[in-house]
Write a structure and sequence with these properties.
Largest sheet: 9 strands, antiparallel
CATH class of the largest domain: Mainly Beta
Number of strands: 29
Number of helices: 2
CATH topology of the largest domain: Jelly Rolls
Shape: elongated
Helix content: under 10%
């Protein structure tokens, strides 16, 4: 099962503005890059487990929950906390709480602060209250305890168990008391700790996203895009398999998200995997000017890791998800010669946002046994590794 195009699976080659795909047939990289764009800096977790800033348009291979790394694509988001790390700044109100700088932070610097208090709190007021998600990194000085983070002490959904290891804690702000203020920590309520080390406060409108550092103003991380890998020599118009090992950031209502092989010009010539906006279900579609195959898998959780294979061949179409065939058809045509020429993590106004462990393309129609094998977890050890169960 040699892949004509293999992107990921622990094998990455990136530079500013692009990331290369691999060709299994002769075991080397080919000039088949995805063009990546993002008109801002962003952060990722590197192989050493540290948060690091990457430059504009630099693709992000993130190792937060995968030792093999994932290709990280996110929609735009703004951190509304103006001083996300400098808790000594006057923007942070320190009521009956003291702070001490110089502690090792998740980015490897000594920019974390110890906050101490018994009846005190550390808070700031974002320039807008239109935030739906708050997050902060926290650890104890020693031992394990609980503390109320991210909101006022009168709330009860903000009590977190803190350990000596850095963790990122997050909270949905819907229905919170005192939602106008961002309480990094509030010792006045149900805390067993009276000191805690903090770093990296974030408040955003939308779901939790990667950390966005700020220093004096709000900062927006622009959206990621990736498109244009391959050429007409890579893709076979008459038969092939599109494979994706992915998880999306949003389930139902997260917008339409697409991964496809197409001619890069027409909106009616493609092999497509699509996550629906309305219910988060999976659609597999082949359209060669008219729809030839469409299957909708409704028993599908887009936010979980999913291995998906869509096979196409004249009068022979099938869709496999996580080791099971969930759709097939023995009626339909494929493409005229020279149509398929690029793979994209998008279609018009339908960007894919999520984590990609692998995107693959085979220029032959594989057997059912091969499709079952490639979408399955072959051993419990492999499943634990790929699903990050060994870190639970």
């Amino acid at each position: 099962m040699a892949q004509k195009l293999k992107f990921g699976n622990g094998t990455w080659a990136t530079k500013e503005g692009s990331t290369l795909a691999y060709n299994d047939e002769n075991n080397n990289y080919k000039p088949l890059p995805f063009t990546t764009t993002r008109n801002s800096i962003a952060t990722r977790v590197n192989k050493e487990g540290l948060i690091e800033v990457v430059g504009r348009d630099a693709p992000r291979i993130d190792y937060l929950d995968s030792e093999d790394g994932v290709f990280l694509l996110e929609k735009a988001s703004t951190n509304l906390i103006t001083y996300s790390e400098d808790f000594s700044n006057a923007a942070w109100h320190k009521s009956e709480a003291t702070i001490e700088s110089g502690y090792l932070a998740p980015d490897g610097t000594l920019n974390a602060f110890k906050v101490s208090g018994v009846i005190g709190f550390l808070s700031t007021t974002p320039p807008t209250t239109q935030t739906t998600t708050r997050s902060i990194y926290a650890r104890t000085v020693s031992g394990i305890g609980t503390a109320q983070l991210l909101s006022h002490n009168s709330n009860t959904n903000n009590i977190f168990t803190i350990t000596e290891e850095w963790q990122r804690f997050d909270l949905n702000t819907s229905g919170l008391t005192g939602f106008n203020n961002f309480y990094a920590v509030d010792f006045r309520g149900s805390s067993t700790l009276n000191e805690i080390i903090l770093w990296g406060g974030q408040a955003e409108s939308g779901n939790l996203s990667s950390y966005i550092p700020t220093n004096g103003s709000t900062v927006t991380r622009q959206a990621d895009t990736a498109s244009g890998a391959g050429n007409d020599v890579v893709f076979n118009d008459s038969e092939g398999v599109l494979f994706a090992d992915i998880s999306a950031f949003d389930g139902a209502g997260g917008g339409t998200r697409r991964i496809e092989v197409s001619n890069g010009v027409s909106a009616t010539q493609y092999v497509r995997l699509q996550i629906a906006n309305g219910d988060g279900s999976l659609y597999a579609i082949l359209n060669n000017g008219s729809q030839q195959f469409l299957f909708n898998e409704t028993s599908f959780n887009a936010t979980l890791p999913n291995k998906i294979s869509l096979k196409y061949k004249e009068n022979d179409f099938s869709l496999f998800v996580n080791g099971f065939e969930v759709g097939s058809s023995n009626v339909g045509n494929t493409f005229a010669n020279g149509v398929l020429r690029q793979a994209n993590f998008s279609s018009t106004l339908s960007e894919f946002y999520g984590k990609t462990k692998e995107l693959g393309y085979y220029d032959t129609a594989l057997t059912d046994e091969e499709l079952e094998y490639m979408t399955s977890y072959r051993t419990l050890r492999r499943m634990a590794k790929e699903l990050n169960l060994n870190k639970l």
